[in-house]
Amino acid sequence: EERRYRSASGAPGALRRRQHSASCRELAVRCPRLQLRSLSAVTSAVWLAAYGLFVLTENSTVLSAAIFITLFGLIIYLHFVKVDQESLLVIGSLGIQVTSSYASGKESTTFIEMGQVKDVVINEAIHMQKVIYYLCILLQDPGDPQGVSEVVPLFQSSKPRLDCLIEVYKSCQEILEQRKTAPQ
After folding, report:
1. pLDDT for 108-143, tens place per residue?
2. Residues in a beta bridge with 21
3. What is the residue extent of each domain of the chain?
4. Distances (CA, A) of 32 to 51, 115, 160, 169
5. Does residue 164 carry a pLDDT above 70?
6. Which residues have C-beta within 8 Å of that of residue 76, sequence separation ≥ 6?
7. Which among 87, 89, 99 is positioned nearest to 175, based on CA atoms?
8. What dotted CATH number matches 2-32+85-181?
9. Which of 161, 167, 184, 133 is nearest to 25 (CA)?
10. Which residues 6+ apart lie within 8 Å of 133 measured at CB?
11. Tens digits of per-residue pLDDT, 24-36?
C-alpha cells in the first residue's frame, strides 16, 4: 500500500507500507527524485562562470577544471548525499533495521536489537522559526532501566510531515505492544 505525502519543505513523497506478518512490518519513505531542471541550472551556472574566466584569462585549463569539478561533484552528491528512499523494517522478535538507499545505488543499513529499544516516539524541534516533527527510537540505558542512553532519529533526509510520521508511529507501536504483551 502506497500513500502520497509532503515533506516538511513541501516536496512530494510517498509512504509504502508492507506487512510481512503480524509482528513484521516494513515502512519505506520515498524522497523526491533528482530534478533534472535544478541539475541543469547548477551545471550551466558553473560552466558559464568557467567560460567567463576562460575569456578573461585565455587559459583552457579553467574549462577542463570546471568540467572535472562538475562531474566529480555530481558523483559525490549522488553517492553520499542524495537519498532516494529511507526504510524501517520492524521485526517484533528481533529488532529494527533502518536502511537509506542513495541515488547511486549505495545502501546504508543499521540494525538495532529489540532488547535495546525502549520506545519509538515522535519528537518536535524548532528550526528556523518553525516547528518540525521527527520520529526517533529511544535506546534503553543498560545501567538504568528507566533511562535513555541514546536517541536515534529516523527519516532525516526525507523529513516527512506529521501525518506520515503518525502512520509510521502507529505501526511501530502496534508491534512494540505485541512484544510487551507476549509471554517471554
Report:
1. 999 999 999 999 999 999 988 888 999 999 999 998
2. 24
3. 2-32+85-181, 36-81
4. 32, 34, 11, 22
5. yes
6. none
7. 89
8. 2.30.29
9. 167
10. 8, 122, 123, 124, 125, 161, 162, 165
11. 999 999 987 777 7
